[in-house]
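Bumping my old thread because nobody answered last time. Still need a sequence for this structure:
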């Protein structure tokens, strides 16, 4: 069966890499979703398959309906939804407070849930189909200074498990991808790539795109990127006290890197 896929956060990073990877599938048609229309247009024109786009901020009230209407008008069916859009603003809870938790949940969790709700009827009608939710290793293991991000990704992972059980009978597979450090525009990981001892911890967007294919087209339940990152989640589950002691040595804070969203806020503050 030919592939028709919606990819959010498609203007750069994992989303762009996923679009390029899925474009290699026979008969693929893609719908690219992100805020930056110029980038979406350039990406669509560079792909060897039919690709349309919707320029939208997924936190806007009308965004899910706009994407659903676009799919109905231009593609008529949907066999894969990749919920990849997300961001992180670093800050401790004492400093950044509820406001940071709310805006992070709004994009990383609520927007995904709302878009999935809008597209679920066409996914069911197009079965067999799949949803891939891009969480994070931070959705299993939290770090100081990134609690809001982890909260959103923990929520996404839990909701994904429940949704998989609910939609299996309807022919909709729901998979989960949990990237670790992936060097992208939104998550540069410069603090890690700049040091020889930590450079090995950072993977690339293409590897994450292959994991999305595994969790979507190949029906895998979940994939860590890179695969060994599941060990951190296993230690957190099996030996929580030991894990907390290890984090208290400073290892956790050393891996709380500055994000693209942080940089954008700094730039705006300087203007």
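Sorry it took so long. Here it is:
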């Amino acid at each position: 069966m030919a592939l028709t896929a919606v990819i959010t956060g498609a203007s750069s990073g994992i989303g762009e890499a996923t679009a390029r990877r899925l474009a290699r599938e026979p008969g693929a048609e893609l719908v690219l979703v992100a805020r930056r229309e110029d980038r979406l247009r350039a990406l669509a024109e560079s792909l060897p398959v039919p690709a349309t786009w919707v320029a939208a901020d997924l936190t806007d009230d009308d965004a899910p309906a706009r994407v659903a209407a676009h799919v109905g008008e231009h593609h008529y069916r949907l066999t894969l939804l990749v919920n990849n859009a997300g961001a992180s603003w670093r800050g401790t809870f004492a400093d950044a407070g509820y406001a940071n938790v709310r805006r992070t949940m709004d994009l990383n969790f609520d927007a995904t849930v709302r878009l999935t709700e809008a597209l679920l009827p066409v996914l069911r009608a197009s079965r067999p189909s799949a949803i891939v939710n891009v969480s994070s290793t931070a959705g299993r293991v939290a770090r100081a200074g990134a609690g809001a991000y982890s909260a959103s990704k923990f929520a996404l992972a839990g909701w994904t498990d429940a949704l998989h059980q609910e939609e299996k009978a309807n022919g909709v597979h729901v998979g989960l991808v949990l990237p670790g450090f992936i060097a992208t525009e939104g998550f540069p990981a410069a603090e890690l790539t700049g040091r020889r001892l930590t450079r090995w911890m950072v993977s690339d967007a293409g590897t994450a795109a292959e994991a999305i294919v595994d969790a979507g087209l190949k029906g895998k339940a979940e994939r860590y990127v890179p695969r060994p990152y599941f060990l951190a989640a296993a230690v957190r589950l099996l030996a929580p006290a030991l894990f907390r002691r290890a984090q208290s040595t400073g290892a956790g804070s050393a891996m709380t890197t500055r994000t693209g969203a942080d940089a954008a806020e700094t730039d705006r503050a300087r203007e």
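Residues 262-271 have pLDDT under 50 and may be disordered. Let me know if any region looks off to you.
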